[in-house]
Amino acid sequence: MLDYVLSALGHLIEPLNILLMLGGLTGGILLGALPGLTATMGVALMVPVTFAMDPISGLVMLGAIYAGAIYGGSNAACLIRTPGTPSSVATTFDGFPMCQAGKADEALYTALLASAFGGVVGTIFLLFMSAPLATFALKFGGPEIFWLCIFGLSTIAVMSRDNMLKGLLSGAFGLLVSTIGIDPNSGVPRFTCGFYPLAQGVEIIPAMIGLFSFSQVLVLLGSDRQFIAEYSPSKGAFGRVARKLLADCKVNLLRSSVLGTLIGMLPGAGGEIASIIAYNETKRWDDNPARFGTGVVEGVAASESANNGVIGGSLIPMLTLGIPGSAVAAVILGALLAHGIQPGFKIFTETGELAYTFILSQMVVNILMIPVGYLLAKVMAKILNIRLTLVAVAIVTLSVIGSYAIRNSMLDVWVVIVFGLIAFFGGLVGLDTGAMALGIILGPMVEENLGKCVHLAKAEGSLWNVFFTSPISLLLILFTLLSIATPFLLELRGKKKARRTAACMESRS
Amino acid sequence: MTRKTADILSGLGFLILAAAFWAAGCDLTGISRIFPTMLEIFMALGGVALVLNGLRKGLTEMACEGTPTWRRIWLITASSILYVACMPLIGFYVSSALFLFIMAMVLGTRRDLAHAGLAAAFSVGLCVLVYVVFRMLLLVPTPAGALF
Amino acid sequence: MRTRFGLMLAAALAACTLLAAAAADAASYPDKPVNMIIAFTAGGSSDVQARIMQKYWNKNEPQPWVFIYKTGAGGAIGFSETAHAKPDGYSIGGVNVPHIVLQPLAQHAPYSIDDFAYICQVVNDPQVVAVRNDSEFKSVSDVFAYAKANPDKLTIGLVGPMSGHHLMYLDVKAKTGLQASEVMYKGAADQNAALLGGEVAVIFGNVNDVMRSREMIRVLGVASEKRCDFLPDVPTLREQGYDIVSDIRRGFVAPKGIDADELAFLREAFRKIAQDPGYQAEMRKAGQPAEYQPGEQFEAYVRKQYEIDRALLVQFGLLKK
């Protein structure tokens, strides 16, 4: 291994590779920041370019685009409350309130440092624990993924504590929307109302753009503000954020990055789920969960470190088993195969030089991301100095092109408008956009894995055996129950505290 | 808006959505139907609960503060719908340039020539930028129409 | 920032000159970029195949392809886009068989096999029966015999429903009378993971897909007429006594109504690419089992497949009137 690491380091200091990493990062960040242009698309567009390159350089560049785009998504999330990629939905929860409070630079630096941290943690797992983790990831079959989704959904209960019923109903509506299209289990189209194009279903990205960004345009124009937020870059913000993260967020960052890596390993579950789960776990374990959503550094740090942790995680089964853990990893797998490189445990011996260069390049990319992201963040924050009306209409146009670009369908553009209106008017009567988004993201996975369980039950003898026997399933069920109970436990704790302070007051008087 | 109306409206909204999905999914059978039907029932029950909950509430609790500027909201909604509807007919770039220019003028506070110049520069500039990035660098197609 | 802008300008200028040059000798078809409609996501097998083809198309032709991804509904969205595109020769698309046969039959997809003018077939990816390396099954007959002796106990992973794998499963059921529990997966990645993780005991997968995890997977049989180049040691199902041939084929089509000369031009251009040794080598590297068939033969194959699949679906009551 050491030989390979040394020759990998040799490759990484080649000027061409450094240039490719910097270029990939810059391009990736810009792509990620544009709503609708995702990491998957950016990497897929560059795959043909790598055919003409040395495989090592090609892979290094694709990896840099991947990392850059996932971080870049946070820029739009913080500045205009539009997740640039689906992975940064949870970043909007606290990133945008921070921006509104005039702390846009702090939000962006938090996202940057947390992303880099998450990326490095994911890479460390990839470097040292690929084999055991890949075997562990295989333990997640239909029932386990089903319970993971249910656990994800249970976070709605934590997310919308003040009105749980509306939150749950919003989530149910999201799930119902996700059933539009071809049924994963029987293959027949559903809810198309005789209009066949609806069989393609409601794609996640246009729905997210509608729920978050088009509705945000309505909110912004409905306010009588001149600019999105007051923004005056404060001196020393970067250092302040770095110290704060180091002092208060060590556990948070570590937990979120590890969660991201673990979820990233599972095929089908990627950054969009990891960041939401990490956000909610951070909120749950915080001393004062109520402050989340009002613009706290911890929220941004959790979401962003988790979604960059996913990168390393998703590459683990891709390199060792040939099973991609995310859509982007699938594209990178295609590039590997096109270069004639066979994934498998042997990849670390037979093509070790390439494998280790690729892995170590992720480490370097995540470190290089800090200066590159810092410079770009300064440029992007300038958007806040543009008049709100201009920014708002520009968001509409970018939402249109972004949603169209995914699969060249005008229907997706209409999805943006419809879901924007649903989110805006729903928001007025207290519906929960985040819960709806979670339902749309998790819906297809819930139903598909439920279907698998039903089929497996035929062989197993009973549905009970399928659902309630594997240790991972039981653990996830336990987490789900805890998650549902959290709001009640918190209330209880609050009451106890109140009683204690009351008692103190009495004894004092 | 008061909490009372918010609850009643959202409850009715969920009831209507559940009914709409129910009606659209009537012809489904077997395994395709189970999961949506469960959700429809849940939403219908929840909708009823919200309405009842709202009816019991007093009129004093406020759900949200401040009234948004409705004129601008209706304006952007209507023009966005028109914008998207026109796109397949006249193409992405022409419709975008028109939309951006008109909205920048209508929503802006000033209506003088200097502002018009700025709005024109903004709309054309953004369209050119999109064209360069999408068509030339990334080779990603944009909605096509008769006029470009 | 400034240098980037400079680069962009340079690129824009270069592109303009190219366009102008192309317009100058606009003597014959194609004189503008050709839209290539891909029904699956960027980076998927269909996309990678078309991208490799594009490289060799660019060698001979000045006009590039513009890739249009119309994904969703298992490819049906993209296929119907191709079927209903303007037949002016500037929209062509990739198709998969049996997808284009099954979707109009069983899923009310709004096109039919008569809506296409067939250019050629480029890939024949046979289905295989595969198990994990440590499985007790050593041959296909072990698998089928076990499933017959223990009804419903055997789990078979398929990508589906209404896919080539699903059809092969129905075919096997019809010919051997076995009874198993089929589990549907969204894609080959999930299916491979389920096999490796032990959730299912057997999968019916494609060569292209099982090759990705071949260290841990044992292929018991190939459902093709002759042995597969990628797996020369694996006997076919026919060699093992089962008359089952099942595969996924990829090809290219234009919408029906395209000018006959343009169709002839495309068929010739694709033939040249498919017979280029460089192309064949790259396809092999990418794990794509290339098999060229000219347009007429491809169309005949699609029509034959239509009759076979229809009969199977009717037999199992999966065809809704």
Descriptive terms for the model:
heterotrimer; B: 148 residues; 2 domains; flat; C: 321 residues; alpha/beta; D-Maltodextrin-Binding Protein, domain 2; ten-stranded mixed sheet; globular
Short synopsis of the structure:
The complex is a heterotrimer of chains A (509), B (148) and C (321). Chain A is mainly alpha-helical. Chain A has helices at 2-12, 15-33, 39-51, 55-80, 89-100, 104-137, 142-159, 164-178, 204-222, 237-248, 250-265, 271-285, 297-321, 327-338, 352-380, 388-407, 410-428, 433-460, 463-468, 471-508, and strands at 181-182, 189-190.
Description:
The complex is a heterotrimer of chains A (509), B (148) and C (321). Chain A has 509 residues and is mainly α. Chain A contains 20 helices and two strands. In chain A, a hairpin with a 6-residue loop joins strand 1 and strand 2. Chain A is globular. Chain B is an all-alpha fold. Chain B folds into two domains: 3-56; 70-137, no CATH class. Helix content of chain B is 74%, strand content 0%. The mean pLDDT of chain B is 85. Chain C is of the alpha/beta class. Chain C has two domains: 34-124 and 248-315, D-Maltodextrin-Binding Protein, domain 2 (3-Layer(aba) Sandwich); 126-246, Periplasmic binding protein-like II (D-Maltodextrin-Binding Protein, domain 2). In chain C, 43% of the residues lie in helices and 21% in strands. In chain C, strands 1, 2, 3, 4, 5, 6, 7, 8, 9 and 10 form a ten-stranded mixed β-sheet that branches. In chain C, helix 2 (45-60) packs antiparallel against helix 10 and helix 4 (99-106) crosses helix 11 (295-315). The longest helix of chain C is centred in the first third of the chain and has 23 residues, at 2-24. Chain C is globular, with a radius of gyration of 22 Å. Residues 1-6 and 16-26 of chain C have low confidence and may be disordered. The chains are: A mainly alpha (509), B mainly alpha (148), C alpha/beta (321).
What does the secondary structure layout of this molecule look like, with pairings?
The complex is a heterotrimer of chains A (509), B (148) and C (321).
Chain A: H1 2-12, H2 15-33, H3 39-51, H4 55-80, H5 89-100, H6 104-137, H7 142-159, H8 164-178, E1 181-182, E2 189-190, H9 204-222, H10 237-248, H11 250-265, H12 271-285, H13 297-321, H14 327-338, H15 352-380, H16 388-407, H17 410-428, H18 433-460, H19 463-468, H20 471-508
Antiparallel strand pairs in A: 1-2
Chain B: H1 3-24, H2 31-56, H3 70-90, H4 92-107, H5 113-137
Helix pairs in contact in B: 1-2, 3-4, 4-5
Chain C: H1 2-24, E1 34-38, H2 45-60, E2 65-69, H3 76-84, E3 91-97, H4 99-106, E4 116-132, H5 140-149, E5 155-159, H6 164-176, E6 181-185, H7 188-196, E7 202-206, H8 207-210, E8 217-222, E9 247-255, H9 260-274, H10 277-285, E10 290-294, H11 295-315
Parallel strand pairs in C: 1-2, 1-3, 5-6, 5-7
Antiparallel strand pairs in C: 3-9, 4-7, 4-8, 4-9, 4-10
Helix pairs in contact in C: 2-9, 2-10, 4-11
